[in-house]
Every structure is written in C-alpha cells, then in structure tokens.
Design brief:
CATH superfamily of the largest domain: Regulatory protein AraC
CATH topology of the largest domain: Jelly Rolls
Organism: Paenibacillus cremeus
Protein name: Helix-turn-helix transcriptional regulator
Distance between the termini: 26 Å
Keywords: DNA-binding, Transcription, Transcription regulation
Number of strands: 7
Structural class: alpha+beta
GO molecular function, one term: DNA-binding transcription factor activity
Largest sheet: 7 strands, antiparallel
Pfam family, one: HTH_18
Length: 259
C-alpha cells in the first residue's frame, strides 16, 4: 500500500480521466459510476472492486454519489508504468460480502491514521481485498472452462450446451430448450449424450453443484441462499443433489474443506 483515502460521500470526480504511476483500487461501498480502462468499460456499483494498472488511462463518469475507498498500491516485482499482471477483468465483485464489508469497516476506522501499526493493519486489509478479487476471478475462469468444455462436431448440440450454460443457474424446463432446437426431449437427450457423453440434465447439474461447492467454501450463505444462486428451489433439494454428485453432504463438505 502507498496510500488510502476514504470518501464518505463523493458527489463528483474532480478529473474525468487520469493516469497513475502505480496501481489504483476503487472500492465501492455505495453509489455508481461508469468507467473506461484500456479496452474495458462498464458500470461499477456497491461491492465492486475496480483496478487500474499503472500507465493506463482511467476514465470515469459519476452516476450517483459514492462511498469510496481510494487506494494507491504496488505489486512486488512490478516496475512503474509496466504492470506485472494481466488482470482477467479490471472489475471484480467478491462473493463474500460480509468479509468485504468488514474490510471496509476497518478501513473507515483507520482513515487518516499515520502511525506504523495502523498502516500495517491497512496493508493486511489491502492484501485481503486482493485475495477476494482473485477468488472471484478464479471462480469466473473455472466457469468459463466448463462452458468451453462443450465443443463437439454437432453444431446443434454446441448451441444446446451454450443455452444450458446461460440458463443453468435459473429455473427452466428442458422442454423449452428442445422446442427451440426443433427436437423432442428424447432426441435432444440422445444427441447430447452422443456429443458429450452425458445427458443435458447431468451437464446442468454439474455446473450448479460446482458453483454451489464454491459458495460453500467462499461464503457464509445458508443452503437456501446457495440453492437460489444455483437455480434450485430450496436448500433441501440442493443438499440432496449435492450429496448424490459429491458423495458428501454440503454441511460436511464445508466442514472438511474450510481452513
């Protein structure tokens, strides 16, 4: 960490764009703004972490007043204007909202402190914010790898796999997909199994349970909350499917794998 500044209510940006000699982190606790960093752009809101590498132009447009943590930092081994890392995206939205909120609360308390002990504590919090961002990026990469898995010589089944991936975490009926492809449910299942050596329902189940396993390890969500994020109606049904695929209950999985 080089410096940390906390804005309880920032109503406008003094500069619509800037370039920094070190890494910059915008940690949003409230409010929204649009951003453009290199070739990436988007809208950032509460719970988002936005990273700007050194030497990159950071353009922004205020949408609503921000509660903002503004941090300058360096990464070990990096040189000025030469980012040592290529980020998957400049924006990360950590799943563990409680942990993020706790980090923000401690940063607010330590705002404007200058003693070495307080600076060391802020450094530890910055390290954890980076870890939260990495966990989010790694989770998105794993999901992308799963989506890329579905690549066969049957172009129609590739379309089916892409559709399933997009809808996996929301309730849907398999008949909806088969109708859109002009196939009966039996034809869809047969062709999908031939292409990917699994049924469409198993493909969706694997996506959902993998996401659920990540949420069990990375968050303190209840089973009902995790079920909702994974496309299941309730925690009881999620728990039953999880145990079938993983050979262990969700609660036991969380207990065995959390450190």
């Amino acid at each position: 960490m080089v410096s940390h500044t906390y804005f309880q209510r920032k109503e406008f940006f003094e500069e619509s764009e800037d370039t920094y000699p070190v890494w910059v982190l915008f940690g949003l606790a409230a409010g929204k703004f649009r951003f453009w960093i290199g070739e990436q752009s988007g809208e950032a809101g509460p719970g988002d972490l936005i990273f700007c590498p050194p030497g990159c132009t950071f353009k922004r447009e205020m949408l609503s007043p921000l509660e903002l943590h503004f941090i300058y930092f360096n990464i070990a081994g990096s040189q000025p204007f030469m980012p040592a890392l290529q980020l998957p995206t400049v924006l990360s939205h950590p799943l563990d909202g409680k942990r993020l909120a706790s980090n923000y609360a401690y940063l607010r308390k330590l705002h404007l402190t200058t003693d070495p002990r307080s600076f060391h504590r802020k450094q530890m919090i910055l390290n954890d914010l980076w870890q939260l961002a990495c966990e989010n990026w790694e989770g998105e990469q794993q999901q992308q790898e799963l989506s890329n898995f579905a690549d066969s010589e049957d172009s129609l089944m590739n379309q089916a796999a892409e559709w399933l991936y997009r809808h996996a975490y929301t309730p849907f009926g398999m008949s909806e997909l088969s109708r859109s492809l002009g196939l009966s449910p039996v034809q869809l299942t047969r062709r999908f199994r031939k292409s990917f050596r699994m049924t469409p329902s198993y493909f969706v189940k694997a996506l959902r349970i993998r996401k659920g396993a990540g949420l069990l390890l990375e968050t303190n969500m209840t089973l009902d909350q995790i079920a909702a994020h994974c496309g299941y109606e309730n925690g009881f049904y999620f728990s039953r499917v999880f145990a079938q695929l993983m050979s262990v209950s969700p609660s036991k999985f969380r207990e065995l794998n959390r450190v």
